[in-house]
Write a structure and sequence with these properties.
Layout: H1 2-52, H2 81-84, H3 89-100, H4 106-111, E1 163-165, H5 167-171, E2 177-179, H6 194-206, H7 211-220, H8 227-253, E3 258-266, E4 276-283, E5 292-296, H9 303-308, E6 314-317, E7 330-333, H10 336-345, H11 357-374, H12 380-403, H13 412-427, H14 441-457, H15 463-481, H16 486-496, H17 513-518
Parallel strand pairs: 3-6, 6-7
Antiparallel strand pairs: 1-2, 3-4, 4-5
Helix pairs in contact: 6-16, 7-8, 8-15, 10-11, 10-13, 11-12, 15-16
Length: 520
């Protein structure tokens, strides 16, 4: 009997051990499931925020849910007194008065530079209603001024050349004929003038109007132009005139000490790749010559920046994509806006969680950006000195604070912490030179011009077409960066480049004095 009790007790203990082991395993599985569920919820909330939330990456006001756009965001001074209970009637009246105030003469300043066409209204045979005598004009007044839109029109400009012969030489049997010199057209055998081609380029690359919509536009103007003709004009002018200019701009770009780079996808129908890439290389914010050069990759491999920046030695702002790390003799500068964005994406979506780690990180980043903005207009030397005084302590404090956090925590906050600590050295590179900046926004804004066009154009039919697009965008964005009207600049180039005689190509760059004078 005792033997049986011992066996039962031993069996019971074994069962207890098995149950304890099972409980531990189930607890671990439950913990894992809860972690996965938390990550899924976080991802869900992030996607909802991307779809329906605020696109502006600023911290929302205290009474607005992070996933919801504020109905009165453009007018934060508008608050309902019944809801807030913090504004007196005098304060509300004062706000209303400020909002209604208009700057005197502002409207006249806006239209002062426009040509004036006067419409005069006179009374004919004006006689006095009392004595029927003729009345004399004693004055006039301006009743209103209005801006009138004059629609564009097309004209057929016929170029007629005259020939001349020497009548005296004809008597001796010799005949000399001289023909008047005629300016060359941009494209031989085409009815397209420089202004017409420039307008189609402006419509596509600045206004983002694809060629098939331009086709219908010209048809409404009683002149049919096929979309294939427009595409051919762009490709041929890019090959003949714009690409040599882009290569010359590239030489100037590679002489700069500070550059920015970014890349994005672009679909090319005849490409073997699923996705092609267009790269952008730009001069720095404080460069004397503002240059943006787009290049059809076509891949995203390191071969593209290695080939483009061959021999370059200087600073390169980028998003720290791995392809840039292969560059030799190039000092990488990380984008602090990307660091901030990681924390912004990790912001909690529940109301009341205003002191979360992610929010605190975004606030610290904003404080650094605010101080940097105050230094933007200083000289290079002053900015370098002031950064050591004001920006360096804030950056040091920010990264020291991050090191006190756990980067192994799962979710977006852990990713943000790890990413920020990884970028610390490259972010702090900005302290080495006053010409450097905290972000790569300059290149990101430049690449956005292509992204906006891509939504409308959808694709390029050929690789040659993609290269032409890159050349034209390079000319356009560089012209805009140097204060030129892109339409006027394209017209200028297509008028003068076919007829240049012993004039160096340098004279047609966007910062050339004559170009600045004629194309603004």
């Amino acid at each position: 009997m005792p033997r049986t009790l011992e066996q039962q007790l031993e069996k019971s203990l074994q069962q207890n051990e098995l149950m304890a082991t099972s409980i531990i395993k189930l607890t671990q599985q439950l913990k894992q499931v809860n972690e996965e569920l938390t990550l899924q919820r976080e991802q869900n909330q992030y996607l909802l925020k991307q779809l329906f939330g605020r696109k502006k990456e600023s911290l929302s006001s205290e009474n607005i849910h992070l996933n919801q756009t504020d109905l009165f965001e453009d007018d934060p001074s508008f608050n309902c007194p019944e809801q807030t209970g913090t504004q007196s009637d005098e304060e509300i009246n004062e706000v209303a008065t400020i909002r209604r105030h208009k700057k005197k003469g502002h409207q006249k300043e806006k239209i002062a530079h426009l040509p004036v066409v006067e419409h005069l209204y006179r009374e004919e045979n004006c006689t006095c209603p009392q004595c029927a005598s003729a009345m004399k004009e004693i004055g006039k007044e301006i009743i209103r001024e209005e801006v009138v839109y004059v629609p564009a029109r097309l004209e057929n400009h016929r170029h007629v050349r005259y020939s001349y012969s020497c009548q005296n030489c004809q008597k001796t049997g010799d005949t000399f004929i001289i023909k008047a010199e005629v300016p060359k057209a941009p494209l031989n055998g085409s009815f397209a003038s420089a202004s017409l081609i420039a307008e189609t380029i402006y419509q596509k690359f600045q206004q983002k109007v694809p060629t098939y919509r331009q086709e219908s536009h010209w048809k409404w103007m009683n002149f049919e132009i096929k979309r294939t003709n427009i595409s051919n004009w762009h490709k041929e002018t890019a090959d003949y005139y714009f690409e040599p200019l882009v290569q010359l701009m590239k030489k100037h770009l590679l002489k700069e000490d500070v550059l920015h780079a970014d890349e994005t996808t672009f679909k090319v129908l005849d490409s073997e790749r699923t996705k092609d890439y267009v790269w952008l290389f730009s001069t720095g914010r404080y460069a004397d010559k503002k240059i943006h050069i787009y290049q059809h990759g076509p891949s995203r491999s390191s071969e593209v920046p290695l080939a483009f920046l061959k021999g370059y030695q200087g600073y390169l702002h980028s998003d720290d994509f791995s392809a840039y790390s292969k560059l030799i003799d190039v000092t990488s500068v990380a984008c602090f806006a990307h660091v901030r964005r990681k924390f912004y994406d990790a912001l909690p979506t529940k109301e009341g969680e205003k002191k979360s780690t992610s929010r605190l990180a975004v606030e610290k980043c904003d404080a650094i950006f605010k101080k940097e903005k105050e230094l933007a207009e200083l000289s290079i030397e002053e900015r370098h000195s002031k950064r050591d005084q004001f920006i360096k302590p804030k950056l040091d404090e920010f990264f020291e604070w991050l090191r006190t956090l756990n980067p192994m925590v799962k979710g977006k906050i852990g990713t943000a912490i790890s990413y920020a600590l990884k970028q610390e050295t490259k972010v702090k590179t900005v302290l080495k030179d006053g010409r450097l900046v905290l972000t790569n926004n300059l290149a990101e804004r430049g690449i956005k011009s292509l992204v906006m066009g891509r939504k409308n154009w959808l694709f390029a039919a050929t690789t040659g077409g993609a290269r032409s697009n890159a050349s034209i965008l390079s000319i356009q964005e560089t012209a805009k960066a140097n204060g030129l009207n892109p339409r006027s600049y394209f017209d200028y180039l297509l008028t003068h480049l076919p007829n240049q005689k012993n004039i160096p190509l340098e004279a047609y760059l966007p910062w050339a004095p004559k170009v600045q004078k004629d194309c603004r």
